[in-house]
Design goal:
Helices cover about 50% and strands about 30% of the residues. It has two helices and eleven strands; from the N terminus they run αβββαββββββββ. The protein is an alpha+beta fold.
């Protein structure tokens, strides 16, 4: 009987210890849950703060974008206004100066008188008047002397006078502008040399080229000359 009582007492102690352990485990589990909940709360607060910070950054970026957009629009408007004013000023100056420019062009003196250097037949049929007796207002004189072509530098109305002396009979001479025929002349059919004259008034634009064309004709140096003068 006594042994049974001892056994019962031992069992009661063990049950009591088990209950204590159970209470301790439950307390530990509860604390762990509390810690996890607190950790989740902290993370939630952190995420909320981060989201608020992002929202503030987005708002600040939007405000900066609006400011830049407004400045850009003002700059474009200012540029358009300035450009329009500049164009108006240029147009006004052009309109004011056009009569002056036309008057200056009209009054510019351009003239040249030159003659053939020696008796010869020109291989390309363009007569070279390389002996310049007088010139004014011509910058490309070297080109004129070497090629025989008068290239217009100042547009206007020009008077052309050509005298060609040759012993060849019944040969034609042509004044051409930009390869287009202007006036022509023809040598005499007699036995002696003849001096043949061509006169014309020709309108020139910038870079128009004028020359005297003689197809396989021997040109004599005496009296073979060209004169060009701007008259308007």
């Amino acid at each position: 009987m006594k042994r049974l009582q001892n056994t019962t007492l031992e069992l009661s102690k063990k049950v009591s210890k088990l209950e204590q352990l159970k209470s301790i485990n439950q307390a530990l589990d509860f604390r762990a849950i509390q810690n996890k909940v607190q950790s989740l709360d902290q993370k939630s607060i952190l995420l909320t703060n981060n989201q608020n910070a992002r929202n503030q950054d987005c708002l600040a970026l939007y405000n900066v974008t609006q400011v830049i957009d407004n400045l850009f629009k003002k700059h474009i408007q200012s540029f358009e206004t300035s450009r329009n004013e500049t164009l108006l000023n240029i147009e006004s100056k052009q309109n004011a100066s056009s009569p002056e420019i036309r008057n200056e062009i009209t009054t510019v003196e351009v003239a040249v008188t030159s003659c053939v250097f020696s008796d010869q037949t020109f291989s390309d049929y363009i007569i070279k008047f390389s002996i310049v007796n007088f010139h004014v207002g011509i910058n490309n004189l070297h080109t004129f002397k070497s090629s025989g072509k008068f290239v217009c530098e100042i547009p206007g109305l020009y008077f052309i006078s050509v005298h060609i002396r040759t012993s060849n009979q019944n040969y034609y001479f042509h004044v051409r502008k930009n390869n287009m025929l202007v006036p022509s002349s023809k040598s005499d059919s007699g036995d002696t040399a003849s001096t043949n004259q061509i006169s014309a008034v020709v309108g020139f634009q910038l870079n128009d080229a004028l020359y005297v064309y003689a197809n396989n004709v021997r040109i004599e140096v005496s009296y073979s000359c060209l004169s060009i003068m701007k008259v308007k």
